[in-house]
Write a structure and sequence with these properties.
A hairpin with a 4-residue loop joins strand 8 and strand 9. This protein has ten helices and eleven strands. The chain has a seven-stranded mixed sheet with strand order 1-2-3-6-7-9-8, sandwiched between helices. Strands 4-5 form a two-stranded antiparallel ribbon. A two-stranded antiparallel sheet has the order 10-11. The longest helix has 26 residues. The protein is elongated and about 120 Å long. The chain is an alpha+beta fold. It comes from Parnassius mnemosyne.
Length: 337
């Protein structure tokens, strides 16, 4: 099978790939694109297997198929353009992506974050300790506009810990139960979660129709024994709540107020007639009384037993009888057993 050279596929020393597996700046027809993707997939799978072997993992982390199925993951490839007689060769890779994690700091306070994670980092064995790893890592930090203290490392190996200590001053990592590890400075700007395990929601004022005043419930007023809120009387075209009328004894004992010119004026007959018309409506609008305040009248006498023309002695209402005195089938049924 024909393969495409690395220098023909990757035009830059460090290439950024996503799930499309099409390097930036690559041009060609459909056949050349498919041939390039097959060649690039073979290189990625070979680097993934070498990385898993070097870290002592049971399964391969980085493959071309996994990258295609992860739209949020990014793969950086480092090449040596002078290798293999000028055709070029890939000597290192770095895969990153964001993960939704729950992390604990040194005080055992949990934080729910979605940081940028280093998922796989590998340089060929014969190219290590030449500065290629730092060049690749610095390019990623500059491209993502972040720092090494803000990253979460997936399963860091001892070589990775030495790399971070030597180049970025991270003396130790806080290893988590989910196999990730972060620097102690990571939690400087991370949000905390309360004891219930949920982040405290921000209190926002009510807007729109939710901020409108709500009328009191008439049902609640009846249940709690109060009068109806909607009782009112109309006078001079204005509505106002009713006030309790004073007792007759108190009104007789109280001295009569001195008459004033304004007190002598009486209401027009039209308004008094209108008030009399509104009283029946107000009586019908009153809320029902509570069951505990209803009066229960004892039964004075038992209804007399009437023998129907059909020979039945069971007491029934008149509405259960037909015109001829027989029981109506709608109201009376004999048991069949």
């Amino acid at each position: 099978m024909e393969w495409v050279a690395v220098n023909d596929m990757l035009s830059e020393n460090i290439t950024k790939l996503n799930y499309t597996l099409i390097p930036p700046g690559f041009r060609g027809d459909v056949r050349s694109v498919r041939l390039m993707q097959d060649s690039l997939s073979k290189l990625i799978d070979a680097l993934g297997e070498q990385s898993a072997t070097a870290q002592g993992l049971n399964k391969v982390i980085t493959t071309a198929e996994k990258l295609r199925n992860a739209p949020t993951h990014i793969l950086y490839l480092l090449k040596d353009s002078k290798a293999k007689g000028g055709k070029g060769d890939v000597i290192g890779m770095l895969k990153i992506g964001r993960k939704h994690l729950f992390l604990f700091d040194e005080r055992d306070k949990v934080c729910e974050v979605e940081p940028l994670c280093v998922l796989d980092f590998f340089v060929l064995r014969d190219r290590q300790r030449h500065g290629y790893g730092k060049v690749l890592f610095d390019h990623m930090l500059q491209d993502m506009e972040t720092s090494a203290h803000e990253l979460a490392i997936d399963g860091p190996s001892p070589k990775m810990e030495q790399f971070l200590l030597k180049n970025y001053g991270i003396e130790r990592l806080l290893k988590q139960n989910n196999n990730f590890a972060v620097a102690p400075q990571f939690f400087a700007g991370a949000p905390e979660i309360n004891k219930s395990g949920r982040s405290t929601p921000a209190v926002t004022p009510a807007l729109g129709r939710f901020a409108a005043p709500k009328p009191p419930s008439a049902i609640a007023t009846v249940i709690h024994g109060g009068g109806s809120y909607y009782e009112h009387e109309t006078r001079n075209g204005e509505s106002r709540p009713t006030t309790p009328e004073p007792d007759s004894a108190q009104t007789q004992d109280a001295p009569a107020p001195e008459s004033t010119p304004q007190a002598e004026t009486t209401e027009p007959p039209i308004q008094s007639e209108h008030k009399q018309e509104m009283e029946p409506q107000l009586e019908s609008n009153k809320s029902p009384e509570r069951p505990s305040t209803l009066s229960v009248e004892p039964i004075t006498e038992t209804p007399a037993t009437v023998i129907s023309p059909a020979g039945s002695t069971i007491s029934r209402r008149d509405s259960q009888l037909t015109d001829r005195g027989f029981f109506d089938v709608k109201f009376y049924h004999n048991k069949l057993w």
